[in-house]
Amino acid sequence: MTPQASRGGLDRYRDDRFGMFVHWGLYSMIGRGEWEQVLARIPAAEYAPLAGLFNPAAFDARELVALAEAAGQRYLTITSRHHDGFSMYDTELSDFKITRSPFRRDPIAELADACRESGSVKLGLYVSLVDWHHPGYLDTSGWEDYLAFLFGQVEELCTRYGDVAQIWFDGDWPNSPVPGEHPGWFTTDQPWHYPELYDLVHRLQPDAVLLNNRKDGLQPGEDVQGFENDLPGENTSGLNPGPTLAVPRETCLTMNRSWGHVPHDTAYKEPDRLIATLLDCVAADSNLLLNVGPTQSGDVPAPARERLREIGRWLALHGDAVYGAGPGPEPGSVRTRDGRVLAPSALLPRI
Q1: In 134-185, where do the E strands start and end?
Q2: Integer Cα distance of 43 and 21 in angstroms
Q3: Domains present along the chain, CATH in parentheses
Q4: Tens-place pLDDT, residues 88-98
Q5: Which residues of 104-128 are buried (b: 16+ CB within 10 A; e: fewer)?
Q6: Which helix (H) or strand (E) segment is 280 a member of?
Q7: pLDDT for 230-262, tens place per residue?
């Protein structure tokens, strides 16, 4: 049987309820989102030179973790490598990485240290299954080479940075039209060897919860059912067509309309709406992973910082409705750890 996360890891994850998602990479320089390479049909050879210009001098891991802490977020999951194939850590398996850029530092190592220092924010790592830079991903005659690279990176991430609370896989969407809409950019018919991949994660990080953003139910070894820009069971985005399962759940949500930084996207959700969504997630027995997209300089845009601090001020007063809480007996209600039932309408003064 494929292992799962430890009971302690699952319980802590459910109790935490609120995390920060961080989409940050080379695409932050372009400022049109993390999919710009495929949307603009930029060949890998033309995209790769961006690495020679990437120098996010404003990045401060302690500041980012302190922001998550101020927001009341208890874990921070960052893109270690997105679909463009650029590794945001000092991998030994590729030269297409941030430590070969003018920046030279390893942000994942710095975040791991900052999380340990904070004592209240845990580190999570996003890993893309897609890689538009690695030749073995799209030319499947080299598929075994690509799998060796993927497995090797997962092993690096699970052994170099101390305790990891979450591994978040993305890029295998068997029931999605997305690959067909972008022919030549996605591989859909090759084996991922998930039992072996998941065993690697659970063996090296037994407390880490594992989520794969596949949107077609859970495979053995997956701990969390994910919902993208949606509450469990609603599927208003059209991205989550399957049934809601009796397992830990997580809604990942953009604060505006973008994952990676897009300067002209100013359509930020108001703090009261974000708080209401957090309570809706708890009432649906789900965590909320709320996204920020740092700029090419490495700082978090001011509107996102302001909203996170507003949420944190609310949680300082009403954290018992979130941490360790779950669904109440009435639709939309929450039950606190000590058994009290709360109606969200009583918790949502306009702020």
Answers
A1: 166-170
A2: 28
A3: 7-325 (3.20.20.80)
A4: 999 999 999 99
A5: ebbbbbbbbbbbeebeebbbbbbbb
A6: helix 271-283
A7: 999 998 888 888 899 999 999 999 999 999 999
